[in-house]
Design goal:
- By secondary structure, the chain is of the alpha+beta class.
- It has one domain: Immunoglobulin-like.
- The chain has one helix and eight strands.
- The chain has a five-stranded antiparallel β-sheet, with no helix packed on it. It has a three-stranded antiparallel β-sheet with strand order 2-8-5, with no helix packed on it.
- β3 and β4 form a beta hairpin.
- The N and C termini lie far apart (about 55 Å).
Length: about 140
């Protein structure tokens, strides 16, 4: 292996490490579950699956919609201007209140400096229904 290939490999590994450190605050939520009944919950209005859409309730905004690795799904990034301290869990439901099937775990990215919570969802392309996000504040233990 040449020295240049070794240096390039080291640089790529370092970039991956830096990206991991920067994404340290991102929380992966494995399941889309109903919140415990005692947990305080804030809800968005029905969010349309349109790039740039902004809801009236809580100001949730669709930042981007991109195809997922699996062609049956799309990745939807949402930004909600809300205090990240009160968001421990997220639930995603359809217009009729049923839990939606997710292609990947939900990513919750709190930004304390901007008072924004970023949420990344992977939803099926089959049903282009709008959806509602429930932001859950779990009781402290």
């Amino acid at each position: 292996m040449s020295l240049s290939k070794l240096l390039i490999g080291c640089c790529l590994m370092l970039q991956g490490f830096i990206s991991t450190c920067q994404a340290q605050n991102t929380i992966l939520q494995e399941a889309n579950e109903q919140p415990p009944p005692e947990a305080p919950t804030l809800e968005t209005d029905i969010i349309q699956r349109i790039d740039g859409y902004k809801g009236d309730v809580l100001g949730a905004e669709v930042v981007s919609i991109t195809p997922a690795e699996n062609d049956a799904f799309e990745v939807i990034e949402i930004s909600i201007p809300i205090d990240p301290e009160i968001v421990d869990q997220v639930t995603v439901v359809g217009p009729s209140g049923q839990l939606l099937e997710l292609g990947q775990p939900i990513e919750i990215s709190p930004d304390q400096e901007k008072d924004i919570v970023g949420i990344t969802l992977t939803l099926s392309k089959k049903k282009k229904l709008g959806f509602q996000i429930k932001l859950i504040d779990l009781p402290d233990e």
